[in-house]
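[#protein-structures] MJ: dropping DUF4382 domain-containing protein here for a structure pass
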Amino acid sequence: MKRFYFLLPVLFAVLILSCKSFDESPKALVNVLLIDAPATWDSVIVEIQGVELDFVPDGRDGTVEKIFLPYEPGDKEVDVSQLVGGVALPVARSEIQMGKITGITLRLGTENALFLDEDRYPLSLPGGNADYSLPLSVDLEQGISYDLILDFDLEKSIQVVNASPLELDFNPTLSAFSGVGRGDISGTTSPTSLKPVIYAIQAGDSTSTHTNSSGGFLFRLEPGTYTLYLDPKNTSYADTVLNVEVKSGSTTTLERITFARK
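AK: finished. structure tokens for DUF4382 domain-containing protein:
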């Protein structure tokens, strides 16, 4: 019994020291999301290992730290062709100290494949390169939640080298941006049986998306005026062109877009 009571003050002191050692520095919440993919293929499976952030802590200019955030699910093979119409895949989430994120790297695995008519076609990474780095500029402020968006553009990433037999070239093409200050364009097309590709064009640059099974689509863009070019990918229907203004922090919802028959 005497030994027990002797240890109590020691244990209490250890607990106090442990509580004081908790990191109470100000932090921001960072969410990394993966979006977008075309409906050209039945499904495209990409193995995601996680993301790595380039981070410069406050007061330490010139010192870049690497912060790896793993994709936690045991099954890391993701059908990215389902990420349309505003659907996003949460890749990672973490609290990070004050500072600046200057870049992001998506780390892929080797189990990448395309499925067409129940046939599987492996997608080999060029040169075995698994890391795809992109510039980013996000100043973190205390108590703010930031969405970092990775847009995996499969329309540009997968090219048909030979039609019969089918041969594919896989070169992952991505863009990265913060959701802060952006605005959305939301719309629906019909007939829903079509699988149109939709381009948002500004100053000679463009980004693309496709519709989901209900004909819905969504863009998240910098404020400004964009030309929407809708290609029905069906020679029986005519293309459609619209001019749309995007406002920061708001969603521009379009009236249903019906493709006209030629």
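MJ: nice. The helical segments are 2-20, 154-157.
AK: one more thing. The longest helix spans residues 2-20.
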